[in-house]
Amino acid sequence: MGDILARVRERATEIPAGEWVVAEGYDERWLVEGRAPTLAELDAACPNHPVLLVHFSYHEVVVNTHAHEKMGLRLHRFDPPGRQIEPDRRGWPTGRMIENAAAPFYMGAIRALRYAR
């Protein structure tokens, strides 16, 4: 996990605040922690950028709070219909978005990357 978060932090130093940090290919099976990074960990590693961390399967992502804000989406305590948002023990989002829940973040980052060049 430390390596992933270090790479996210490093990339954030290379781009202006507010631009997307996009990384892909993490696989929790290869991490000592055996889980995806959390919203809180991404917030701590990259507080001034929206982060989109794409799972190797492309069926899920992990995002931080700034990504929600950038997309104009509120952090919901419960799953909206048709989406899969992983909750923690208290019911709050962990940042892990599965299938349709990931779509808005993919679209936001892709649009930003396309127009930033």
Question: Can you characterise this structure?
Answer:
The chain is of the alpha+beta class. Helix content is 34%, strand content 21%. It has 4 helices and 5 strands, in the order H-E-H-E-E-H-E-E-H. It is globular, with a radius of gyration of 13 Å. 31% of the residues are buried.
Fill in the keyword field for this structure:
globular, alpha+beta, 21% strand, Diaminopimelate Epimerase, Chain A, domain 1, 4 helices, 117 residues, five-stranded mixed β-sheet
- CATH architecture descriptor: Roll
Named CATH topology: Diaminopimelate Epimerase, Chain A, domain 1
CATH class: Alpha Beta
Give the count of structural domains: 1
Low-confidence stretches: none
What overall form do the CA principal axes indicate? globular
* Average predicted local confidence, pLDDT: 86
Structural class of the helix and strand makeup?
alpha+beta
What is the H/E order?
A: HEHEEHEEH
Q: How many distinct helices?
A: 4
What's the N-to-C terminus distance? 30 Å
Q: Would you report the number of β strands?
A: 5
Strand count, sense and barrel status of the largest sheet are: 5 strands, mixed
Q: What's the alpha carbon Rg, rounded to whole Å?
A: 13 Å
**Beta content:** 15-25%
Query: What is the strand arrangement across the widest sheet?
Result: 1-2-3-5-4
What portion of residues is helical? 25-40%
